[in-house]
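Internal ticket #5521
Category: modeling
Description: The requester needs a full-assembly model to guide mutagenesis choices. All entity lines are attached below as received. Residue total reported by intake: 584.
Assigned to: D.W.
Attached entities:
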Amino acid sequence: MPSDNAIETLGLTKVFRSVWRRTQVRALDDVSLEVPRGTTFGLLGPNGAGKTTFVKLLLACVHPTQGAARIFGREVWESEARRPVGYLPENHRFPTYMTGVGMLDFYSALSGMQARARKKRIPELLELVDLAKWGRVRLGKYSKGMLQRIGLAQALMHSPRLLILDEPSDGVDPVGRRQIREILHALEEKGVTIFINSHLLGEVELFCREVAILHRGKVALVGKVKELTAGKGYRLAATSVGGEAESKLRETATATASKDGLLEFQFADRATLNQAIDLLRGCDAQIESIAPTTSTLEDVFMRTVQS
Amino acid sequence: MTLLIASAALMRDTFREAIARKLFWGLFGISTALILFAVFIMRIDVVQGAIATTSLFGQTIGHGVDVTRLVRGVHAVISTFLYYWLMCLALFASAGLISSVFEPGRIELLLSKPVSRAHILLGRYAGNLLVVGLNAGYLVLGIWLIFGWKTGVWNSAFLVVMATTAFMFAVLLSAMVLVAVLSESGALAIMVAFALMIVSAILAQRSIAERLLSSEWSRTLWNALYWALPKFFDVGSMNLNFVQGRPVGSLAPLWSSAVFAAVMLAASVYSFSKRNY
């Protein structure tokens, strides 16, 4: 059934049971998530939060204990559901006996690409990930960053509509990261849905439009990055603030800080900010800056995980 | 069409891995050495259209020997040797090829492709059969050609060892696949395959067991195990009889081994489809 979402999960639960030790681990607990088509979505969470289990459930590597997962409206257990998906796994172990060309050829053949189409597409992809000269070299000779780039090329070979990337920047140098980001931006413009599982919050903040934070197997937070990082107050910095004015401002500010004669105040709303500006103007203080307060994704993440 | 493309890719990958791991060329090298060995072990001197002497392993056998019978005898010995030898080599070579698929970081990527788990497993199985089948064909055909060329006796029955070896390898490989799926251990898979070979030789001694076993239940158990497990030894005996031109007897060892392989493969596919990776 066609769906507006690239990924949908409903009450997805995974419990790993150890038969011998009679122990069980609830890796995912009632996870319901929707990833709209064409978006860039980041899945965040501390180690052991269930991120990789979630991705493996989407790709039918792991069976759910309860719940359902769909890709473009198809149950993930149908092998056809995986046809529009490109995947770059975390800790991949590409067969080292393969060359770059051989590896791209093999995995794209499994995706059902015809030999002629593969032959045409391989040089394009090698060029895209800057490995054109390495195509005939065995993967055993590749550096970690090169393996990551050839892995990305592998995921893109059959022009997928959904790209699932597990730690795509892992082991890649800053130049390579920027290159990967540019490739992903180009894909985003073409309407490809990009789902990134990463612990690099800065990368996710730079690239993703939406995020979900998993914590202890549950969805702790989900939303648009802009909204989650947007502040609710204002920050004001001033110098030459008299003692009396400073005391008054401290009473109305939600937070204050001082360093080398520069005083910083945070106000909860615009009305209090305007009162503070009037007060500072009245006492000949110098206003250095006024800005709305914002959080980084890291702030949001830490607050979510620690709460 | 996509099914065929994926199947060909899986088989080609197994083949490529066998080459990269030097397994294919190892088998090929050993086969070549055996073929060359065959060139030197038999020499026939023909004088004015009649055989003057026949030399085997450097020993002159004598004048007026029945070369057809001699070649059949040598073929029988060699076919038995090849059956056991090829099987041992093939099983050693295959252990790593099956279990390597289940390596973490590799299996996830395979499973993420629009190919069913049964398809992945059976494609790999077929690729493995191809690697061993080609080598078995090369070795048996090579030796058959050498003997035919040297003796002028073209005993086509000898070629059956290609089929029996490939068949029994397919049977034992099915058990290895199941063990590899369950344990992800190539070493354990090979141990089980060799255990099945040895046990089959013991279980084949049913007439002795009938006499030695005192209780009815133990005889029943012996028979049950005999029918349930692959008959590697019996198929080897059938092979020997066939090459020597003797009656091969009942075909039950063949079909019951085929049933065993089918059950093993079905169990492997079922188990593979239920596992988490």
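Resolution: model delivered.
Comment from assignee: The interface with chain A takes residues 1-2, 5-6, 8-10, 12-13, 16-17, 19-21, 100, 103-116, 274, 276-277 of chain B (CB under 8 Å).
Ticket closed.
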